[in-house]
Every structure is written in C-alpha cells, then in structure tokens.
Design brief:
The protein is α/β, with parallel strands linked by helices and 225 residues long. It has 3 domains: 69 residues, no CATH class; 101 residues, Transcription Regulator spoIIAA (2-Layer Sandwich); 49 residues, no CATH class. It has 7 helices and 8 strands, in the order βββαβββαββααααα. The strands form 3 sheets. A 4-stranded parallel β-sheet has the order 2-1-3-4, covered by helices on one side. A two-stranded parallel ribbon has the order 5-8. It has a two-stranded antiparallel sheet with strand order 6-7. α3 packs parallel to α4. The radius of gyration is 22 Å and the shape is elongated.
Amino acid sequence: MRLLRVFPRRTRATPDDELAFVGDPTLFAAGDRVHVSVAFTEDKPEAERLAASWRHVAPTEVGGVAYGDPGAEFIPGRYIKHGYTFTSRGCPRRCWFCSVWKRDPVPRLLPIQDGWNILDDNLLACPEPHVRAVFAMLARQRRRVAFTGGLEAVALQDYQVGLLADLTPRELATTRLRQIAAIGFTPMAMLWRPEHASQMRYAPGPEWRAFQRRWVRPALMHPRG
C-alpha cells in the first residue's frame, strides 16, 4: 500500500521522503491512502482543512497525538524523521498542565528501535533494564545523541549519571547560565558530587571546578562598569 503522510506544518522531525507532504496536494501526489498526522492541538483546524483537500487524492484519515492517539506502536520514519525514536510512552508524574499521564500513568515500554534523538515522555522513569538497553542502543549510533523529549531531574538515579556521562553529551552549561543572567537572575552553579566509589571516574575535574567558581560569585557575573 502506498501510504501518503500529510503534516500541517514542517518541523525538524517531519519526514522528508517522497511520500511525506506538508500542506495541500501537489499536482503529482498519488497514493492508496492518506494519513494527516497532527502533533499539536492548535493545528487541528488546518489538519481538517487539509483532510478535505486530500480526500480528492485517496481515502483520508486524520489522527495523531492531538487527537488522543495513544501511540500503540512506533514505526521509524513514518510520522517522524528517521533518527528520531520513541522507546516508551507515558509518565508517572501528575503535572496539572500535561495530558501524558492521563493516557499512560505508568511508562509503557516499546520495542527499542535504533535512533539518536529520544522523544520519550520520561525515559528516566522507566525500569532500569529498559533504560540500560536504550543507552546501549545509543552507544551504537554514530551521531551526536539528543534527548528532545527531555530528561527529568527528579527522576535521575545514580546509575543513570554514568550512562549519561559515557555518551559524552554536548555541554550547554555556559549558554544556560548566560540566559539566566540575561533575564536578570543570579544563577548558582552547583557541581554534581559522586556518592559512591564506583562513580569517582565521573567526578568533576579541575576545569569544572574553575567553571563553577565563575558562576557562584555575583561580582564576576555582574561586573560593574
């Protein structure tokens, strides 16, 4: 079956293969079925307009996260670009502004598919064997790893610190601290300290201690003219 996927807007994660479209049908668009995929609720009016337009090409369905799709399965490259991947759905937190936990109050584990950009709702809240398997998969990738879905600090466990350090993630500490200072706040940089001997290889080195000293002294952060 030739499945055309249609998206109301283009993002970094939008597939870019020949069967993926953004907006109205092109002159040569042809397929057996059309799926209009909607990630954001604000795009629903445009998605429904597109569905009416694409029905002239092939039978059309509208769905996606914005319509409550629970994401029962994940097929790499179908609704998000190759490289982006989900290994779980759901979150145990009960944040009032979020609907994720209403669908999956306990992380629902998915088969681990290769990718380098993790979109899980709360990966670190998943059981340890799953988390370790995900990081083993990431270690095989030859791309810089990203956690676009986010990493919740409150869920961070000691063993996960080592897994993250082994990936040698890109350091954005300076950028984040400068952003805080730019909006008028005084940041207080704190270094993570190992609690167990097995973690000593991740202990901050002299360069990190020097970095921290720069960002705990208001006089250095806000020099007078």
